[in-house]
Amino acid sequence: MSDLYWLTDAQMARLEPYLPKSHGKPRVDDRRVLSGIIFINRNGLRWRDAPREYGPHKTLYNRWKRWTNKGVFAQMMAGLASEHGEKKTVMIDATYLKAHRTASSLGGEKGGRGRLIGRTKGGVNTKLHAICDSKGRPINFFVSAGQVSDYIGARALVSNIPDVDWLLGDRGYDADWFREALQDKGIRACIPGRKQRKKPVRYDKRRYTRRNRIEIMFGRLKDWRRVATRYDRCPKVFCSAIALAALVIYWL
Fold first, then answer.
1. 16: which residues sit within 8 A by CB, 6+ positions away?
2. I need a surface site. Which of 3, 162, 209, 236 has the fewest CB within 10 A?
3. Contact 117/248 with Cβ under 8 angstroms?
4. Distance between CA atoms of 83 and 118, rounded to whole angstroms?
5. Which of 2, 12, 5 is nearest to 247 (CA)?
6. How far does the chain reach from its first CA to its final CA, in angstroms?
């Protein structure tokens, strides 16, 4: 069984402050159940396909749904990521995450509302907007429908950008309002100008090359099959899957 555990005692100790308090009957072993939840999300399996060493699959699923509804996984991610200690540089970018048929079967306009799934040239997908530190660790993220522009993601994340010296971003973030918002926060923008600009924008090309770290971060998150492919119709459940992946890969 020890080979199937994903979390060490030290890691469980870090998560302890974020675990809901048990009322009445004590909960089933948190370490075992969380390991089962991680196993399912990492491998993109159905809940009933969980190894029996993790216990009944209904226990895993019920814990996952209950804690998702309470925002527990998002709180774990936000709480541990707040200890990033970054003072120099952060990066912003977005990536597409494919929506599986089980998530994108909209069933008419009413059923499709609020799912944060959209249609682009690449098909039906969801878009993940994220900020990471200079080490490529995610600090904050925002999920939208696939057709939503980088501008919208930037507006959602700008208030959560830490107090740093630099922000790196690609041409998709070249907007006067965004540059002004960064300037108001005392942050210098390293963002290439769009080709439509009449006056070229100067930026630090050498510093800009470090932006590949956020691309690497997206790649590692997509190693988790329930992140790379969205199977869940509920956006809150999908966000929990992303938060859990980021938590295990980078913050534990």
1. none
2. 3
3. no
4. 34
5. 12
6. 21
| Contact yes or no for 62/37 (Cβ under 8 A) | no
Are 132 and 142 within 8 A, CB to CB?
no
Question: What is the bridge-based pairing of β-strands 89-99 and 166-168?
Answer: parallel
Alpha-carbon span 58 to 33, nearest angstrom? 11
List of E strands, the chain? 89-99, 118-120, 123-133, 138-145, 166-168, 188-190, 229-230
DSSP letter at 195? T
- Measured CA angle at 38 (ends 148, 246), to 5 deg: 45
Q: What is the pLDDT of residues 63-115, one digit of tens each?
A: 999 999 999 999 999 999 999 999 999 999 999 999 988 887 654 444 445 78
Rounded CA gap, 75 and 83, in Å?
13
**pTM of the predicted protein model:** 0.91
| Structural domains of the chain, ranges and CATH numbers in brackets | 2-70 (no CATH), 85-232 (3.30.420.10)
Q: How many CB atoms lie within 10 A of CB 41?
A: 22
For residue 29, give the amino acid letter.
D
- The encoded tokens of residue 15 equal 């998560």
d(CA 79, CA 64): 19
Six token digits for residue 84? 């990033």
